[in-house]
Design brief:
The N and C termini lie far apart (69 Å). The protein is of the alpha/beta class. It folds into two domains: 70 residues, Helicase, Ruva Protein, domain 3 (Orthogonal Bundle); 193 residues, Rossmann fold (3-Layer(aba) Sandwich), CATH 3.40.50.
């Protein structure tokens, strides 16, 4: 006999809670298995699962209970209103990064026409693709050191029907022969020693080269501040995501690299320092 949706959902949430795992993942999994939106699922909570749905739900719940991210199980994550394929090769896009895209779009309005944009360390392609969707005339390039990540990003660009120039290489290496109007990056910024305090769902399943950085998490910001000055147009923008305790250090790095620029620390929706914007030129 099959279970009603709400009974299976409540049982799965209790199991996840007992392991200190995210209980909301059970709802995302149920939406995926039943092919119902969140609102439709709530309306149909007393419907029975089919035998196939019940088997699929409990098999995938077993995966959840190992700590595997629900996004890896269902294969997708939503970002900036778009759907992205995700797997073990790319960082799962976070809502805070949507704010980096939004802030960059607002601040780059002063740069007209076919704005040249580079997304360094693109991962799933989320930043580059969301920016291009909002500003189709922009010429967007996305780079990553991981060939596996770039394959995912290319599939996501096709899924979301945008044209992105993908290049493989480390940091500014793939873009160093050109000048840029906008450079964006969500680089690895977690200090390696912090891994002991992090969720095992993140540490055990997401790519470490997209999470952790040497030099107390500041390594990539130092490299970017060092390498970007000759690559930026006279009137241009740099935007990076940061760890919430890194604001003063990262802003100082970019202010020293661009003495005449306006460098701002911007908080996320939770009131934590989350972005640095460096506005160059008038």
């Amino acid at each position: 006999m099959t279970e009603q949706i709400y009974k299976a959902l409540n049982k799965a949430k209790s199991l996840l809670d007992s392991k200190d795992l995210d209980a909301h993942a059970a709802q995302l999994l149920m939406e995926h298995v039943t092919k119902k939106s969140g609102a439709a699922l709530l309306a149909d909570l007393r419907e029975p699962l089919t035998p196939e749905q019940q088997t699929a739900f409990w098999n995938k719940t077993e995966d959840l209970l190992t700590g595997k991210p629900v996004q890896h199980i269902i294969g997708t994550e939503q970002f900036y209103g778009l759907s992205f394929e995700v797997n073990e090769h790319v960082l799962i896009p976070r809502p805070e990064t949507e704010e980096l895209v939004l802030g960059a779009l607002e601040r780059s309005r002063r740069i007209p026409g076919k704005c040249r944009v580079a997304d360094i360390g693109t991962g799933s392609g989320a930043i580059a693709i969301a920016y291009k969707k909002e500003r189709p005339e922009a010429l967007v390039t996305a780079t990553d050191i991981s060939e596996a990540a770039l394959k995912v990003a290319k599939r996501n660009s096709e899924l979301n029907e945008v044209d992105i120039d993908f290049r493989i290489g480390n940091l500014t290496e793939p873009i160093k022969t050109e000048k840029w109007d906008v450079v964006l990056s969500n680089p690895p910024y977690i200090a390696i020693e912090e891994s002991q305090e992090m969720s095992r769902t993140v540490v055990d399943f997401e790519p470490h080269n997209a999470l952790f950085a040497d030099d107390d998490g500041l390594f990539f910001y130092k490299k970017l501040a060092q390498e970007l000055p000759p690559l930026m147009e006279n009137r241009s923008l740099i935007g990076v995501e940061i760890g919430y305790l890194q604001g003063s250090q990262v802003s100082e790095l970019f202010q020293k690299a661009f003495p005449d620029a306006r460098v701002s620390i911007v908080k996320d929706v939770n009131g934590k320092d989350r972005m640095i914007f460096c506005e160059i030129g008038e």
